[in-house]
Design a protein that fits this description.
By secondary structure, the chain is an alpha+beta fold. The chain is built from five helices and 22 strands. A six-stranded antiparallel barrel has the order 2-11-14-13-12-15. The longest helix is centred in the first third of the chain and has 45 residues, at 2-46. It is elongated and about 190 Å long.
Length: 398
């Protein structure tokens, strides 16, 4: 009886062990399957979502932006050409006022210059008399030689007074030059504006004594302002046929740095040398009658200049953010993974860049905002945006 009980107990324990092992095995299997499922889901979620835009080539007009300062065509530090005390000073010779060409600025005491003119006139008169006397003496000497009966010409030109006549003419010419200089100096005692000008600085006061070369003031011409715009080789390559600019006066737009005021100008000329400071070539934009514009364009204004260039065919228009810091353009290749190429930027405008498409590639899906962590062949979860930047489709394929 005891043997049967022991056998039965062992059998029950064995069966219980089998059940426990089976239950444990099934639990481990379920745990393993659940773990793999979570891992698979985690891997799917770990793929970065990337915004893509679809681009196709199109024709666009280039847009060149340059910067420069509005400067007068002429900037002159006016100096005195005579010496003397200022007898009269124009009340309009003050900073901020405008002058027309020929307007009176000041008058220097002219007494000694009038005296110099009178002395020069005396010298001219004496030289004229001396010349007339020498001409008469020359005629008389020639007659005496002819009546002397001597054949041929005299051994010396002094006999017919030819050198004396030349000397008399030279004295008269010198006296006339002295008179012209004296008259010029007398005229320069009246100081006038050499061109239509804006008075930037005044150095004159009533009663001041001027030396030759003393500063009178600083004048800016007001008929035209010029803006020197340095352009890069890339910009020169997209601006178009520069040979026609000076003939057609190609129009450009000018905006101040606060983007609150605008003006119109034109390309006046192209410089044919590279500047030493920035090693670039410049074009010169001109604005006529700048102070009569609405609003007035003042000298010294720093400007942003917009120039329309040539039309480039079959190029891409991309958001400026699509160009990485390394200058790469990232896109989705045929294997649904990331690839890149070095973008050749042709020009930029309004937060967009215009680039030359990659060889043998017309349509492409471009990464809108590439990250520095991207590597070639990286798998992503693409979100394709339409032309308006709205989500076009959510792609789950890889």
């Amino acid at each position: 009886m005891k043997c049967n009980i022991s056998t039965l107990s062992i059998t029950l324990l064995a069966a219980l062990s089998v059940i426990i092992m089976a239950t444990y095995t099934q639990a481990k299997r379920n745990q393993y399957l659940h773990s793999n499922t979570l891992k698979s889901q985690f891997t799917e979620i770990a793929l970065p979502e990337v915004e893509l835009i679809t681009v196709t080539p199109n024709d666009y007009q280039t847009h060149i932006i340059g910067y420069g300062e509005a400067k007068p065509q002429y900037s002159l530090t006016l100096t005195s050409e005579v010496s003397g005390q200022i007898d009269l000073l124009s009340p309009i010779f003050e900073t901020g006022r405008q002058l027309k060409k020929g307007d009176h600025i000041a008058a220097v005491n002219k007494l000694k210059y009038q005296q110099a003119v009178a002395n020069a006139q005396v010298l001219v008169a004496n030289a004229q008399v001396a010349l007339l006397e020498e001409q008469r003496k020359g005629v008389q000497s020639k007659m005496e030689w002819e009546h002397s009966g001597i054949k041929g010409q005299p051994d010396s030109k002094l006999v017919l007074r030819e050198p004396q006549l030349i000397a008399a003419k030279a004295v008269l010419s010198h006296a006339q030059s002295e008179l012209a200089l004296a008259q010029r100096n007398l005229k320069k005692t009246q100081i006038t504006a050499p061109f239509n000008a804006l008075i930037v600085h005044s150095n004159l006061q009533p009663g001041r004594y001027l030396q030759i070369g003393s500063k009178i003031g600083t004048l800016y011409s007001i008929d035209q302002l010029e803006v020197n715009i340095p352009l890069s080789a890339e910009q020169w390559g997209t601006i178009g046929d520069i040979s026609t600019f000076s003939q057609t006066q190609k129009q450009v737009s000018l905006i101040n740095t606060q983007e609150t005021q605008k003006w119109q100008g034109y390309i006046d000329r192209i410089e044919l040398h590279h500047h030493q400071n920035h090693r670039q070539r410049s074009l010169i934009v001109t604005v006529d009658n700048p102070l009569n514009q609405t609003p007035a364009l003042l000298p010294g204004t720093f400007l942003e200049v917009h120039i329309k260039g040539q039309i480039l065919e079959s190029i891409w228009k991309l958001p400026a953010s699509s160009l990485s810091q390394a200058g790469d353009i990232w896109y989705l290749d045929n294997n649904k993974s990331l690839a890149s190429f070095q973008g050749q930027k042709l020009f930029e405008k309004d937060d967009h860049i215009y680039i030359k498409p990659m060889d043998n590639m017309k349509t492409a899906q471009i990464v809108k905002r590439p990250l520095n962590s991207y590597v070639l062949g990286m798998q992503i979860k693409p979100n394709v945006l339409n032309k308006n930047g709205q989500l076009f489709a959510h792609r789950t394929d890889r």
